[in-house]
## 1
Amino acid sequence: MKVISLFNGVGCGRVALERSNISVDRYVSHEINKYANQVAQHHYPDDEYCGDVCEADFTQYKDFDLLIGGSPCQGFSFAGKQLNFNDSRSILFFEFVRALKEIQPRYFMLENVRMKKEGM
């Protein structure tokens, strides 16, 4: 399986795939935190490490099977100020949407926090 992970952090998506006995042929990680990348690279040195999702050309991953990620959640979290998309970090969600449109993977998984229900 070919996997691309956005907001990869320390590589928990890779760990979950491994623990689920899902064979990974190629794993591409997008993460800007250098310390998180160091941890991920320590455990998975053969994976490909890229930088900022905002600068990525996702069309090169058209043949990928799985897109995973969890965009920053501080703007949506009950623990925060619940600014939703008025929090500048929250707009990174739309980078996941852009990747989804450009890659068109067979599967995708977006993880985030429980959010309040507005207008329901």
## 2
Amino acid sequence: MNHSHRPLFWLLLLGGAIALSGCDWADRVRSFFHREEPGSAAVTIGNRTFTRADLQRFFDNRLSDFRDPEKADKVKSNLLDSFVEEKLLLLQAEQFSVQPNPQLVQAMLATIGASAAKREAPGGSAVRDAALERDVEDSLRVQQYLHDHLLREVAVSDEQCQEYYEGHLREYMTNDIVHVREILTDDRVKAEQILASLKQNKNKNFGDLARVYSKAPSASSGGDLGTFQRGDLPEEFERVVFRLSPTSVSPIVQTKYGYHIFLVEEKILEHQQRFYEVKEQIQEKLRLERERELINKEVEALLKKIPVEIHTASLDFKYIGARLSRRGGAIE
């Protein structure tokens, strides 16, 4: 299996499988929402019943960044739809006798174990969770099925990319970009002396002066701050920097941090990006869209054949998902 070609959809779901179940925030979210026994039946898909514990583990792995309890119903309903989607596709993977790559399974479990060990007290060790191991295997099995069967014919031609580019030119305009260096001092007199030296040497000694006199973290790299688009810099800096022409130096800019002098090494004005610059970006976008479309069609077809029942009495949230209701899934 070529693991470099993984649909984004399944990278996101698989990312949940390798997240640390039991991390501090997931525990707090679980405690906040927990109202039913974890062994309660939550979802029945075909002839398989999944418990609250199965669903909760799936949620825990994907709620690490969840911060708004008021949106819990919507967030968890979407996650429940994703859970059902994964299990439906898993049934298809089993129909094709797909097996996950054992080396990849072990590598991912080792990564999980290493991350978990870092959260333990010194000398502690992470206990391998059989349910988590099964989740990793199942996610990889589905990923392999998608790669080897459902999505293997997905391709985007250069002509299709060119057509998309020509129809979306405004999406591929660059902003103004500047490459900036900085000297920062605490003393205005010293800043004026530095400006005088720069003028005398036509700014060619900016990097040397930055290394000697600048107190900014960029001093060791000759004051190099990198590149910025309009909107990236504080307004007081942006007003000055974007007025400069390449190789020119700013007047002294005073802030609470001290006295700044900027050099614009390079300036690229807003322009239409050429097709060759964005071809790979467009190709990836179109490929992911087509993969998502195929996955959606597959799941819709499976929902027509395989009964899905949501046991709402066992859920700790109000199910407001649209897909299962629209497809006629049973909602108790």
